[in-house]
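Supplementary notes for students who missed Thursday's class. We covered one full example, reproduced here. Read the sequence, then the structure, then the short commentary at the end.
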Amino acid sequence: MEIKNIKIIDILQDGRAVAKTQSKTAFIEGAIYGEVCNIKVNNEKKNFFEAEKTKTLEKSPYLRKPPCPYYYECGGCSIMDINYKSQIKLKKNLIKNALLKSAKIKIDDIEILEGEEFGYRNKIRLQINKNGKLAYNKKYSNDLVEIKDCLLAKDLIRKNLEKIEEITKEITKKYPDSLEEITIRANDKEILLNIKIKDEKIIPYIKNQYKNSTYNINLINKKETINISGKNHLVYNLLGKKFKITMNDFYQVNDYMTEKLYKTAKDFLGENQKVLDLFCGSATSSIAINDDNVVGIEINKNAIKDAKENAKENDLKDYKFIAKNANYIDDKFIKKEKIDAIVVDPPRRGLDKEIIKTIAKTKIKKIVYISCNPQTLARDIKRFQEKGYNLEKIKGCDMFSETMHVETIALIQKM
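Structure (token representation):
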């Protein structure tokens, strides 16, 4: 079935466009925010249908020429063909719609903290094809598109991509189809490479060939991570503090926006608070947000080890970091530690129901919730509402420009 002359009114987080008919909502692949087009319906349900664009009738007023030559093939960016002001509007809609749908909270506007459009990513992950060339996955596909540049990456990464590809090509020439992917992480001065390998036989060759490399290089196989040259970590400066970050530690990909995010969290928290940081990782958020007086919970033992080192490096006196599943913390522990406020930065799936019940039992008055998924954040706000909490403040943070992903920070308080 074909539907003609339909206007695109929004974009979902997965990049699909949204339109309305008289009776149903349409989710459309390949359409651009603001355009009028014809669509072909592929899958019809009771209240919505899925479709694909067949023809553009009126171009979007928000349309621009994407500055990246790989945009129409590469799956890394989803809204680079829309001007930045409109990208921010779409992200506002994403948060507002999630709050209205799940928590029945209607807000007229929401502030989105903004930064640079390009050159912000301190970490990128690339596939390595059979010829050793660096590539991203194509849109909606496992096929690869070779790239020579990535506009989202920090300048240091961009300037070194060609040299890094020389390494992967040289290894692949000697051992065909032996490499799988490479993760590149950079601070302001150094680069860390984690290369995922398919065949352990290549390890001695790489050790001998690259032991004196100017890059910090580590190999990953199914069993272990092997250091080839330099270090297995980088040091980042954030809000006047230093943090040791290994390749496997969680660390926000946008340095500038991370500072804005954590400054906002610090403002939401206020001063003289003993903070419990759930899902603390290597403690970048808890140490940056609260100068001292921190308890952190994280399931990853290696991250907890790094958290303790980061606390010592920054001269914290009153801290405790525990390797444990944050979803199973009980109210007795929280009361025993005399916690004043809680910071949570959970995975995309959000908080487990039980941890919300536990927090509510303690009658903790202040929760700062950092989220990369507006839908699960809104769902959890609803669950907190049912336990006597209110949403007091909320802001978006454009951590990932050119995509429909947005970081959100909320202050949730006991009534």
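Commentary. The two ends are 51 Å apart (CA to CA). The longest strand covers residues 48-58. If anything here is unclear, bring it to office hours.
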